[in-house]
Amino acid sequence: MRVVIVDDHPLFREGVAATLASESDLEVVGEGGSAEDALRLATSLLPDLMLLDLNLPGGGLAAARAVTAACPVIKIVMLTFSEEEADVLASLGAGARGYILKGVSGHELRRIVRGVHAGEVYITPTLAAGVLKQMSGSPRVPISPLDELTPRERQILEGVADGHSNKEIGRDLDIAEKTVKHYMTNVLQKLQVRNRVEAALMAHRESGR
After folding, report:
1. Domain assignment present for 140
2. Residue of 31, 33, 63, 178 with fewest CB within 10 Å of its CB?
3. pTM of the prediction?
4. Residues 6+ apart with CB under 8 A from 176
5. Do residue 91 and residue 38 come from a single domain?
6. Do 157 and 199 contact (CB within 8 A), yes or no?
7. In terms of domains, do 6 and 107 share one?
8. Residues linked to residue 80 through DSSP beta bridges, in sequence order
9. What is the average per-residue pLDDT within 81-106?
10. Which residues contact 182 (CB under 8 A, 6 or more apart)?
11. Domain carrying residue 52
């Protein structure tokens, strides 16, 4: 798993990096200290997961939104001191898949990071109950799994449904073939299908083609 850490406290950041790098299956490929760094590292390195401080120069929430919009396949985990339920909800709304309080043990951090990478959503247990209570007031039930796709992901899926390769889709949308592949990975996960053929069939059923 390739990880990027963005925190404006170098000593803390280095400690987290050392904690993760001690495991053979975890590789820290980049570090930064601002929202601008977060987006730059996301687009240039396309890591599997990003650990993001909430209180960054430029704003951790703004960074999460920007990274999610540019590279939705990257799983974001907020690592923060804030125990405010509003911050947890705002982070999840910005695209984060995890919310961890600083002070967590190294063993727990590695376990949580692996879980989020595998598809879990994690909230520090002391905060989870209150957050779930707030969220349960207005549950969002999508009409179709395709409703979960972002506009860019829909464009990618439409290209696949039309029989285009990743290279052709990238050329049509003026993005790199590698980026198309990452978007498609996210599409498959959201639609809960195994391959692009099944995704294309779902798109055809949706459009009535």
Report:
1. no
2. 178
3. 0.65
4. 170
5. yes
6. yes
7. yes
8. 101
9. 90
10. 46, 71, 73
11. 2-135
Q: What's the full length of the chain, in residues? A: 209
> Are residues 194 and 155 located together in one domain of the fold?
yes
Among 95, 90, 105, 78, which Cα is nearest to 19's? 105
In DSSP notation, 87-149 reads: HHHHHHHTTEEEEEETT--HHHHHHHHHHHHTT--EE-HHHHHHHHHHHTTS----SSGGGGS
Q: What band does 129 get if pLDDT is binned at 50, 70 and 90?
A: low
Residue 121 CA, chain-centre distance (Å), reads 10
Q: Give dist(CA 71, CA 14) in Å, integer.
A: 25
Dihedral angle over CA of 129, 142, 43, 32, nearest 10: -10
Element (H, E) at 66: helix 60-70
Is the model's pLDDT at 134 over the cut of 80?
no
Radius of gyration of the chain (CA): 18
Residue 162 sits in a domain whose CATH number is: 1.10.10.10
Give CA–CA dist 4/32, Å, rounded.
8
Cα end-to-end distance, the chain, whole Å: 39
CB-CB contact of 75 with 50 (8 Å): yes
Domain count, the chain: 2
Residues 201 and 121 in one domain: no
